[in-house]
Amino acid sequence: MLVVQIKPKEEILPLISSKRIFILECLGCRDVHYPVEAAEEFIGDLKEEVVERASLDYLCHREFAQEYIRAYASQVEKAEVVLVFSCGVGAQVVSSLLEDRTVYTGCDTLYLNGFQGLTAKEYNCEQCGECYLNYTGGICPVALCSKHLLNGPCGGSQQGKCEVDPDIPCVWQQIVDRLVRLGRLDTLERLGAPKNWNVSPAS
Amino acid sequence: MQVALMDYTKFRLKPDPEIREVFGQANRMFVLSCGKCYKRFEEEGEEQYAHLVEVLGDESNKTAGNVRIDFLCNEFLSKKRISSLDFSGCESIGVISCGLGVQFVARLFERTPVYALADSVPHSLNYPTEVGYHGISLEEEKCAACGQCYLNLTGGICPITNCAKGLLNGPCGGATNGKCEVNSSVDCAWVRIHERLKKRGEQLSSECVRPRDHSRPSWKLRSDLSLQNQMLRGEGFYGGIHPLEKKEATADKKIQNFPEPRVAVIFLCQHAGRRAKPLVEVGERVLVGQKVGEADGFVSASIHSSISGKVISMEERPYPAAPRNELAIAIENDGKNEFDPGIQPREDFEELPKETLLEIIKESGIVGLGGAMFPTHVKFSPPKAVDTLLVNGCECEPYLNTDNRLMIEHPEAILAGIRIVRKILGVERVFVGVEENKPEAIAALSRLAAKSPWVQLVCLKTKYPQGAERALIKRVVDREVPPPPKGLPFDVGVIVSNVGTLFAIYEAVAKGLPLFQRVITVSGEGLTRPGNYLVRIGTPIKDIIEYCSAGSVDGVLQQCDVKMGGQIMGIPQASLDSAVVKGTTGLTVLRKYPVAVSEERDCIKCGRCAEVCPMQLYPLFYGYYGKKGDLGKAIEHKVEECVECGCCEYICAAKIALLSFIRQEKAYARSANKA
Fold first, then answer.
1. Is the pLDDT of residue B227 over 80?
2. Domain B11-120, what fold?
3. B37 contact residues in A (CB cutoff 8 A)
4. What is the pTM of this model?
């Protein structure tokens, strides 16, 4: 699931300084995550003239975004800059609908683990296209190993923690533990083809 | 409306040889298949499983059953579903879903082998760039979620997801006729960027930009964010939403008396149940608090005049609580505000026996003031013994502050009301649930509760629909009310009452005042005088909007939606010709949203409705079968258990008119039950 953070002020202010701004704010994924306080602070501190602040939802939906822009046409017309607070998808949709206007985004986009639905998961699926879960006791090394290793642990883990980031458990340790519990440790002896990182996208 | 929707299905069956390989080592496998997501909702049978069986051929007897579960990665709902299945005789579990579903099931069955029977499908637009994540809508734009957005420099076209080489500093030079050299069916992103910038009269920045940080966003940051989200979502009860509260405008406004109306329009049905029988005739003079309608039957309530004056008409008028006309008595104010002589305070009200108290409540026409308008004397005569009174001071609806102000300004009266009800019900325990966004109310009540050890004040994390009684009961006393329409709170020994109702009970019992006035919040956009007002019942909505917007109300409905109640559960008013009824918690004026909910749009299976439904239903089916006109199918998906809190429609990423479908389907279910 895509979530956003407000960009540092130093990055945005030079772009919009002394311009009239129309703010389009997307609250569609607010129940997943939206930095309400940071956005309030950013918008509240703006010295520039804010023509209007429209708080809407699902800017990533082209049909909706089109209607929003129609409803706020006069404000868009009045503004010199349209400043979008949304994920990268919403910003791109709005930008493509306002081809001849200056559209900026005030956000950086990240993703949360487990990006379907609303509730974030502790685990994730990177949608690599070639599922390894059958050989790893249902724990994904593609998503969870810092080094994306598919053929066993790197050897650098300490007390079950990753050497890259000691906050993260070593996923290979977890895989081995799970396989031992299942009595299927021999699964790891299987020789598989190397991972094709080139799996073609959905046809 | 048929819009081209991208299909972001996240998985497909593994190649046939791999499936055979999996079954080579597994036996008696129970297959769970996910109903897919992020694609147009279509009725899909079990094709995936059918294909699996076909691939296995003679070995198909190695499977031991198949169940389709929508949104398998929704752990809470899927766990419930899976635990109801019978896995006896199975040696392994096969999962047809994306990696999320497989990992979830693998964790659930720690000691049974779980096999993935599907591969996820990557959705990079311009392969071989990195994965592009789509938004919640099924549009083609994608975002790499790189954490370092470049769109401000590139005219809103992302070079990371659109350039085959992911170049950030301009074109590679290999494009021919504007097409990418890696994949000639795709436009060169940098050509598009140049053209877009030219249209805008902008040019590429000649300044140095931050080089891209290719390390993935830190695990710590992402896990903090997901943890935050999990805590926010899981608080107290399953589902629910967090709309902007918008209570600031009226939270500090003292309750003021609203001017008496020139003409009061008093509906004879201001309650659940049968309409009251009129007791007056046109031309008759009535006094404030005089009974003008008699309860007709057990589930019904009496109606009282709210002003003194002459009855000028009795006719059907637009009813605010439902889209229909209802019989109403119109009374012209004589300006004397003369009270019915029967209205006398009772000094000794604390000593009255419970039968008398119940009779006073009945005679005073008190109904649930939280909006449901269920006759209070009926609610307080439960057919089963109850042990807990739960006082509802949540007021989780955005904009409203009626309960909040009552708790701040009249805590003693509410506590006296609680004492009365406690006596009637004969309960020991009383809980008062208040959301933590009302610190003043909490302070006022806790001062009093400190003196009454039998009252326990419970502060709840703000979440809509906390005030829905089932959610509240689960949250406060941790009991599950059996599903509606049959299950009611008294089945688990609880009666829930709103603070407004308790205040009205106090007023009726101690001061002798029948229910002819109530507190409402008038709030929303474009009002000059938003506030909390004590209004006489029957005050025309038009008068109130006129007073609070200090001017003419012509054309308000063209630009705004006026809702009786709050933003989410409030009932939209087709005209302003209706009047305040007992269940009017407030009037909310909202600028018309540019996109209305529709019965035409297609479900995109984002799964959000199922994630927010506090009744743990799958509302997407109601929209799907509703649109197809197959209303009976919704009954199979438990539409009768829906409490119409509106969370699903609020969150719906396709803006489908789910509530409208649900109401049709529930009506169909009721008539089907009768037949």
1. no
2. Rossmann fold (3.40.50)
3. 116-117
4. 0.89
